[in-house]
Amino acid sequence: MTLALALLLCMFLGTHGFNKQYPIEPQPNFDLEKFSGEWYRIGIADESELFAKYKKHIKLSKGLLVPDTNGNVNLTMWTMSVYSYEKTDDPGEFTYFSQRHKITKDVTIVETNYTDYSLVLKYKNMDKEYTQVALYGRSSILRPDLIEKFRSFALSLGFSEEAIIAPKDLDPCPILEPRATLWLPEEQEEAEAESRNNNID
Ligand SMILES: *[C@@H]1O[C@H](CO)[C@@H](O)[C@H](O)[C@H]1NC(C)=O
Ligand SMILES: *[C@@H]1O[C@H](CO)[C@@H](O)[C@H](O)[C@H]1NC(C)=O
């Protein structure tokens, strides 16, 4: 679908109407080995109210993705949160249990060329509270062509302009920083939910 058509669709569906017109599949022949290693999260699209409130404080963050021999992966962010994603029958699609929302979410590697970027969709049922798109880059340098690719993709799914951000500041090493500056939408909220519930897992 062209961007213009997607934008037109958004106008009909209302600015926050997610586009559920076409199913989203993982990248064909997904290669987990090539996908593993360091990634910077350089773009986020999120339509939730909480995100709107905190998006100004969100920084670029770094993560390390480590697969095991079964094809499951752990993603460790600089915040030291570890996410364990379980493989599904679809290579390039994983699931995990969100502590914040208390539901199982799917994570789909929609597009990647392994050496430069990846577009990742979380929760493809397209829900304003749960769905997120992220752009990951092998480098923290913001390349306009990659940002544009990410923006077009998010817009085509029905995200509004305001919901799409590309943070400029790199998160400093979190160990030296007070926790309040480490705004990472999902990770932060999950950590807070966990501390409220005393529920560490
Ligand atoms: C992923 O994390 C879990 C729980 O912390 C751990 O048991 C497992 O060994 C880790 N796997 C890899 C590949 O690091
Ligand atoms: C990945 O994409 C970037 C730009 O989009 C390009 O410069 C690079 O050559 C690509 N790498 C591969 C392996 O296709």
Automatic annotation (TrEMBL):
Annotated keywords: Signal
InterPro entries assigned to the protein according to its UniProt record, in alphabetical order: Calycin, Lipocalin, Lipocalin_CS, Lipocln_cytosolic_FA-bd_dom
Signal peptide as annotated in the record: 1-17
Residues of the Lipocalin/cytosolic fatty-acid binding domain: 36-167
Molecular functions per Gene Ontology: small molecule binding
Homology family: Belongs to the calycin superfamily. Lipocalin family.
Protein name: Lipocalin
The organism of origin for this protein: Anabarilius grahami
